[in-house]
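Contributing new complexes? Match this layout with 2'-monophosphoadenosine-5'-diphosphate.
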Amino acid sequence: MDKYAVIGNPIEHSMSPEIHRAFAQQTGEPVEYGRILGNIDDFAGDVRRFLGEGGLGLNVTVPFKEQAWRLADELSPGAHTAGAVNTLIRLENNQLRGDNTDGIGLVRDLTVNQGFRLQGKRILMLGAGGAVRGVIRPLLEQHPKRIIIANRTASKAYSLANGVSNYGQVAGCGLDELAGMEFDLIINGTAAGLAGEVPSIPDSVLSKGGWCYDMLYSNQATAFQQWGYEHKAARSLDGLGMLVEQAAESFRLWRGILPETSPVIAMLRE
Ligand code: ATR
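Output block (do not edit by hand):
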């Protein structure tokens, strides 16, 4: 069996092992996928040990994505811009390539699974942390009309927008500068939902027929999904589809086969 794993801290609630086992079963690939509780002070050591045991690739999750970016010997263009790596691939020369599949995961869930056309749309991205940095370039590459990145700490939104401005129409602002603006899609990339909170935004930012998407996932509706229902969003979605899609893209990078995601999403919804 070929060895892969997800590394993070905490890690016990990660659904990645279940997802990748389903992919392995579906494709017949000889993949074994475990979970590693990463040592906060020795991420590089944990990675080295895993490779020493014959490991071929890792998914990297909170809080190690930036460290994985620094550790990788080479980076995909997407990972380079994101400043974060969620997929490490062991190359034939034993060097490590870092990639980031979060953005493609979000784009595929929105466009393929949900049928939302990003081209020409006005998008509000809430948050300017690592989660948002990982997805902003792939979103811009879909040619939305514009993306406004709004963050509680405005300065972080400005600098993130500046860093990706050559990929499309994008600007940063504070949450308190949104009055009078309107969007076809609002994506929540903040960590507010972990505390059951919603970033404070004006009621009027969601256009009639607009969609809400929370990058977080929980087995009940997330706080931001709830905000979407209350504000009459045409659809209000959580991030489960994104989670499965980013995993599928990692699997493709490792194995050269893109698994079917819909049966796995359906299985996890049960
Ligand atoms: P992650 O890697 O999950 O993105 P992060 O880099 O710590 O984590 O970023 C967390 C994001 O959630 C930030 O954009 C943060 O806003 P600040 O930059 O102002 O801290 C945002 N956030 C967290 N709690 C929030 C809340 N209650 N309301 C609004 N934004 C919040």
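Reviewers usually confirm one structural detail per submission. For this one: The first strand starts at residue 2 and ends at 8.
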